[in-house]
Write a structure and sequence with these properties.
The chain is an alpha/beta fold and about 375 residues long. It is about 35% helix and about 15% strand. The chain has eleven helices and twelve strands. Helix 4 links the parallel strand 2 and strand 3. Helix 3 runs parallel beside helix 4. The longest helix has 20 residues. The model has no long low-confidence stretch (mean pLDDT about 95).
Amino acid sequence: MSEWGDGTRCVRAGLPEPKPGDPFLPGPVFAAPYHLDPFQGPEASPNGYGRPDNPTRRLLEAAVGELEGGDCRVFASGQAAITGLLLTVLRPGDTVVLPTDGYFPVRAFATNVLEAIGVRVLLVPTVGPYPSFEGVRLVLVETPANPGLDVVDVAVLAERAHAAGALLAVDNTTATPLGQRPLDLGADLVVASGTKALTGHSDLLLGYLASRSAELIEAVTTWRTTTGAVPGAFDAWLAHRSLATLDLRLARQSANAAAVADLLAARTDVTGVRWPGRPDDPAYPVAARQMRRVPGVLSFDLGDADRVGRFVETARLVAAATSFGGLHTTADRRAQWGDDTAPGFVRLSCGAEDTADLVADITAALDAAPPA
């Protein structure tokens, strides 16, 4: 698949060999138990019991693995994937480096669970400065960071981590595997929420982990089987179906984000505009080298919570919602969820609406909701 373009890869990823009379993508297989061979038991078939075994799930894993460039395991949610990674790799006495400006439930998990079992947690901004990695077991970064959208050079960080004997994991949620492939840049593991742009229809929860290390994949698989953190067959099928349009969706979302970022940057009543695709963005130099495309997520500040509310209430094409990467444009005031952001900070996820319509609607909404 590597010689094909992004659209072709997305459409074809994970599909079985064509057979006359079969569908392109087989329907979901709903099963808890399967028929077992009376003599060989589960050794005779890849399907023995629904928690570790499901053919629909395996097709999705093949698809995501093809796009990320590694072996993949899917989980019931992004949080299940990332906590599964942390608890698989880390042991009491280990040290982990986590981002101060990444997804806040990961920091909460580190404080409430990892530190309680004796794991030392170091919190570092995405752009550093990073401490020495000597004695560190795992470095986890989220790039672009959510919600601030800073970007770190994965190849440089991988070299530093490996020189010290540490593993590097990259949260690829915001970028998706069409935006960047961290495994190609030297990362040991990729973890992500497939709930967001990867599946993009705001109708399922999904997480995944990918790696080229058979040892790490085996350990993660054992963890998932033991804890039961698997997605259902229908969610796996929905995700695989939705994956086929990822290239198309990202193209429109990125174009919308570029236009909206230009609009916001030109207004005097909006501050702190961030989108790594703009040449004047602090993240642009690294993003331009590292990323194949920039996602449709941007951020800015409207000054206070009340103005954010008035802006979203007035807009016709912007919904208040706490996710991103979907077909519909959404705005999220991150301070209300516990992020260390200003009261008027907004993460805007551009959907697949017509660019001209979205720009006009945001312009009208900002005009109708001036600063107090």
